[in-house]
Specification:
Strand order of the largest sheet of chain A: 1-2-3-4-5-6-7
Oligomer: homotrimer
Order of helices and strands of chain A: HEHHHHEHEHHEHHHEHEHEHHHH
Shape of chain A: globular
Mean pLDDT of chain A: 96
Strand content of chain A: 5-15%
Largest sheet of chain A: 7 strands, parallel
Radius of gyration of chain A: 21 Å
Low-confidence stretches of chain A: none
Protein name (chains A, B, C): Amidohydrolase family protein
Number of strands of chain A: 7
Largest interface: A-B, 37 and 36 residues
Pfam family, one (chains A, B, C): Amidohydro_2
Structural class of chain A: alpha/beta
């Protein structure tokens, strides 16, 4: 964390033991699920849209998206980075932010996030946001790639892959990608939900499903067939790749209750999946269920990324709820930031602050030792991801 | 709030910043979902029944309903209004309360609630509880009406409306009610649950459904046909009326899990609904889901009424959970009080106290500014409802 | 609680009013759902397996199960009982524990738990753990028996009971067991989940289901037929016996979401069930739903056993969540400890501590009186179970 500008434990200092506070301020995080930053300036309407994950609609005229936990958190924690006082009002924040060029803004926020390694999902809106190289350059930290399974499958379709060739072409493309990626991600939550048949499909079933898909979607393919969703995941599992799964909170295109991670039991019980680490992303409001699955399955990990940003001042409570059943070796840190670099910073800031308040309370009460608290913070903040993804 | 008798921040004073505390004590609330008060004295058995929302059964002999969070909260917060000390025992409370005539009791509790506008559901047990005029008179604050859709539909049936006339008759009755109502309410949660086909039914489908309904129920009609439930809501939406929907906590006639607001996605995605404000009522234990929907849909509002009363000392935690994803312009205050005027007071008291403790903590920690806290309290306590219902 | 060795309110003393603290330290608990202790020494791998309820897999090599809330809680609260300092590291704890013979270990932990009556489920792995007599002897407190319905039914099958005789044989066996048991338990959560037809099956349906069961399972019968699950419960209800139902948290053999207690509505609404007390066990993460059902049905009780142990430092929050809708006369205490005597102690310790912190806060804030807090602690800790099971 950069000194002077931002103290993630401001106003909470006396409640966090000193060594734990130091460790949390200085911890180099691995943000295991994140996206790039906008490379061009955006206008205020676009910015406010970014403060609402759930809705694709224009904001109602009677309100501003700043009037939300995430809006307040940005005014509190990001204002110092743009030269404005903490909790400056929305107009003041916007004015100060707008005075900075995108590259400068990105660099300030990304560096202040104290992330030592970004693990980036490159499969969404790649054109408008920074790629691996630019993220690494602007942040001063290395970046690794996560391949989005549906994006690659849809690309194969756009290249007129024949139904009979699809399964092999997909597997070959995965193998070809292996040297440059550290894992894959599925967004089947947005396509068919989790309550599907998760058994490994036979190749002839894939042929039929692809043929039907082509017949339906033509040149604008959108993979939402459950059988193909299962095929993609099994193909990645055959290579033993870490598999990220979008779970819970997201925009309203998904049926939130159909992304309850308990509905993944059919997949998790498949013996052929056991070699892959399964990363449950976000999970809110099903993070207790995710913690349970991380206890019940040796290969399941989880995070509460995105949710932390959106609940703002409530982050300590959500962080605490995520510290119930899940073994400490199985939780990961992520921001799931996209586009707006405030989110990269906010994820880091709210997580460090929340861990300080939550673990600090337990240390003060004698429930945990301070050295345990530091160790667990390092496990969740970096060590678990380093091990699970095999990072440097 | 009346001074001297009741300080909603008693025992928590030093944890709530002074201006926020003043604002919360003095805020004139809009109780956007509430019922009238009993006009006649009730006996203790009836009173205790009112302390249990879930059960229609007689209370087991081994217990008193006073031994619950709501019972303790009444003894704590309502006792001073009947001239008894805070936390007087149950018998003492009952004795002090019984010494007051219903009109006096109602007036004391209603006025102490500090509500400046009541928005009253008149569709349930109208005969035994006070109507708009009496509520206004006893409380000294104006009252507006919410029309219960199922009640009006069942009344049409009792007047022998022919199946072929029902749709038009219902729409005409709604139009006729327009000048005197500010919105409508559906209790389909109690009739068919939310997991139904929410598309707008064609009029000929309505004809068939009404005919089947008459054949089944005869002179004692109870509307529980899903198609008719959808018809009622769409009819109200065509007029752009605010639509209240009972969600979650209620008596065991409903299947709680079938009133998860996520099951309303089919309705909320209907383009023809977008013009109406949709008010999700109660929501517990699905208030996090409700906050998500309020973010995801520009026309969705939510409250945690009724639940606040029933969880008593836990109200601050439930209030805090409701302050996660939902934009602050989309949450409303309600007590959902019915019959017993203690509930009208308790909703107000526990909400003010909880907001003081929760927002006060954030202000003390530097997460929120005090002026933001006051502004958000006013939005949720009154401004949002005033705007959404178009009240004075 | 034994003095000197273990103070359940250590580090929290000033936050718990003195009389409440004394009452909680000295309260003789009824542990209404618990199992025996291992009678032989176990190795560390087995011990660590016991720290993971969810998974039947071997622990991954990269972690220790001690790195979890339950692991930290054992190091914190059980270490003094084996002569090690609080929060001794895992190796140190294991070394100190291993120096004690099983009988000595059991006696120390069981006596320090301060339980005055054990209500023991004898239907699981009876051979490896202590029975009623040994539990009573090692703990110095009496033990009563809960009969596991599925275990008894499967035993009848192994004795070649004919399909046509099964229903009567089962009922007769229940009657025969009556003098020695205080209730029964069903683990249908593990067999078919709750979303089944809960109506009382006719005897001829039972005949057919048993015949099909024999044909399928042969000499290794496992009762998972929904109709037979319902038959077992109805047979117990006919005798008016208290019926324990495993709900929620358990190993991954169950589909957690299919053990949501709301799915028991069909059973709870059966009039023939009303005479039996229904005890919802564990309930996490559905403890709010369980509290609702305890309000909605006069005969429903609930506990948060097992979960308290597994969430460790988070126990106060889970205890608090369980104190929302459920009437105080309807909540019970249990540890659901199995095998490892640390769990018998931990349940008691974390419950006492959590009640002290949660109720103490409410007393300090003036929400509850201290005498009410003491009374509610005694109701949940012992009185409710004494009444519901008709114990001494």
């Amino acid at each position: 964390m950069s000194d002077g500008e931002l103290d993630v434990l401001a106003g909470a200092g006396e409640r966090v033991p000193a060594h734990l506070a130091d460790a949390l301020r200085g911890l180099g995080l691995i943000d295991h699920h994140v996206h790039g930053c906008f490379t061009e300036a955006i206008d205020r309407a676009r910015f406010e849209d970014c403060l609402n994950e759930g809705s694709p609609e224009p904001m109602p005229g009677f309100m501003t998206q700043f009037d939300s936990q995430i809006g307040f958190a940005i005014r509190r924690w990001c204002a110092p980075l743009v030269g404005a006082p903490p909790l400056v009002d929305a107009n003041g924040y916007w004015a100060a932010r707008s005075a900075l060029a995108p590259a400068e803004l990105n660099a300030r926020m990304l560096r202040a996030a104290g992330v030592e390694h970004w693990v980036i999902d490159t499969g969404f809106q790649g054109g408008t946001i920074s790629g691996l190289d630019r993220m690494a350059e602007e942040s001063g930290a290395p970046a690794s790639e996560i391949l989005r399974l549906e994006t690659m499958a849809e690309e194969l379709m756009r290249r007129d892959t024949a139904p009979g060739d699809f399964a092999d072409a997909f597997r070959a493309a995965l193998v070809e990608a292996l040297p440059r990626i550290v894992g894959v991600k599925t967004i089947c939550a947005y396509r068919c939900g989790f309550d599907i048949d998760w058994r490994r499909p036979a190749d002839e079933e894939v042929v039929r499903a692809v043929a039907a898909w082509i017949a339906r979607d033509g040149e604008n393919p959108r993979l939402d067939d459950p059988l193909l969703a299962a095929f993609l995941v099994h193909a990645a599992a055959e290579l033993g790749l870490p598999i990220q799964i979008h779970v819970g909170f997201g925009d309203r295109d998904l049926d939130l209750h159909r992304t309850n991670p308990m509905l993944l039991l059919g997949l998790l019980r498949e013996p052929s999946i056991a070699r892959s680490s399964i990363m449950l992303l976000h999970c809110y409001p099903y993070h207790r269920e995710a913690g349970y699955l991380a206890q019940a399955f040796a290969n399941v990990y989880y995070d509460i990324g995105l949710a932390i940003n959106y609940v703002g001042a409530r982050a300590p409570h959500v962080v605490a709820e995520a510290l119930e059943l899940g073994p400490f070796a199985k939780q990961l840190y992520s921001s799931d930031a996209f586009g707006v670099p405030e989110f990269h910073l906010l994820g880091s800031t709210l997580w460090r602050r929340s861990m300080g308040l939550v673990l600090g309370r337990w240390v003060a009460d004698g429930d945990w030792s301070e050295s345990d608290a530091i160790r667990v913070a390092r496990m969740i903040g970096a060590d678990n991801a380093r091990r699970a993804y095999g990072l440097g």
